[in-house]
Amino acid sequence: MSFLNQEWIKESPCPSNEKFDSPSGIGHVSGSYTYTCVSVSPNICDTRCKGSDKVEFYCGSASGCGWMTDNCLDTGCDSSDGKCYCESDEWCKNNWRPADAYSNKPKCIQSGICSTCDCGSCSVTFSGTSGCPNNHCLITKSFCGCTAIADCCDPSYNSNLRGKCVSCGVDKKCDVDTGSTAPNCKSGYSVCCQYDSDCPAKDGRKGICDTTTHICEWGPCRYNSDCDAGYCCEKEVGSITTGYGCVVNGTIKDNKYLCDPPEWNHASNQTIFDLLFSHFKSLMQQIIG
Question: For 42, phi and psi rounded to 5 degrees?
């Protein structure tokens, strides 16, 4: 393919697999110079865009290989380097919001994704580059999704997930477990929150919202105020390492109330028998007069 007597060429008019060959090395064409599009042999793992949402990557000249195609995982393709990419967190949040009204791909993750050449009849062996495994090519420089539950629970992206059991799955998408009721989430899921009030009580312990991860936590109690209504923080068992648990008011162990009374009723160090004797003594005094 050649071009004659062009006035000015700012960009190569050649296809993506060919290059613009200029005798003077510039894009200015004058007189009767002829400029030719020269075929370029691609290298293993070269990439190029195919439309706006697909990418092609070169797997070599072996039978069944050549240029292979993969999707851009709901993002666009950057024609400058032939890699899939996302524009911003805001772009991801607004573009990938399914019918249930939460964004399952809330953030623009600045990380690569690799695609394998071992597909169909193609059989190749080459060392991975750009952090990819062997026989894989880097096709994505950023993508919409999540890398941790905190990405999903961040209220600036998904405020409507507060109080729900959520996970960032192996497919890098946020998933809500509609079959579980917080705080009893199944393994791998956590309760999203923005405020402590988003965290239901668990085993008598009030939930605390971690303002960094936006995930509910239920640590050991130190004060009765750490416990839900009808519970108090035990003092007779536990340690500085494991902490204390919240027990039902009136719980007795080893002939003693664990935390109420005496703590709440100011009857320090009394056993249940001490309390019964005190009650009996008061009753007898009333009878005797």
Answer: -70, 155
Query: Which neighbouring-strand residues pair with 83?
Result: 78
For residue 218, what are its two tokens? 């239920």
Quick one: pLDDT band at residue 207, thresholds 50, 70, 90? very high
CA separation for the pair 152, 166 (Å, rounded): 7
Do 209 and 224 contact (CB within 8 A), yes or no? no
Q: What angle do CA 167, 169, 172 make, to 5 degrees?
A: 120
What digits encode the pLDDT tens for the residues 103-125?
788 888 888 889 999 988 998 89
pTM of the complete model: 0.62
* Spatial contact of 1 and 14, defined as CB atoms under 8 Å apart: yes
Strand 113-116 to 136-140 pairing:
antiparallel
Is residue 77 within 8 A of residue 92, CB to CB? The reply is no
Among 62-71, 197-206, 264-273, the least confident range: 264-273
Q: Is the pLDDT of residue 81 over 50?
A: yes
Please give the structure tokens belonging to residue 136.
């894989």
Q: How far is CA 50 from CA 72, 80, 112, in A?
A: 10, 13, 18
Tokens of 215: 């995930």
Q: 103 near 174, Cβ under 8 Å?
A: yes
Q: What share of the chain is helix, strand, coil (3-state, %, to 5)?
A: 15, 30, 55
**Mind listing the pLDDT tens digit for each residue in 235-256?**
645 444 456 788 888 787 777 7
Q: Tell me how far the alpha carbon of residue 171 is from its chain's centroid.
A: 10
**CA angle, 55 as apex, 50 and 56 as ends, to 5°?**
85
Helix ranges (DSSP H) in the chain: 89-95, 149-153, 155-158, 272-288
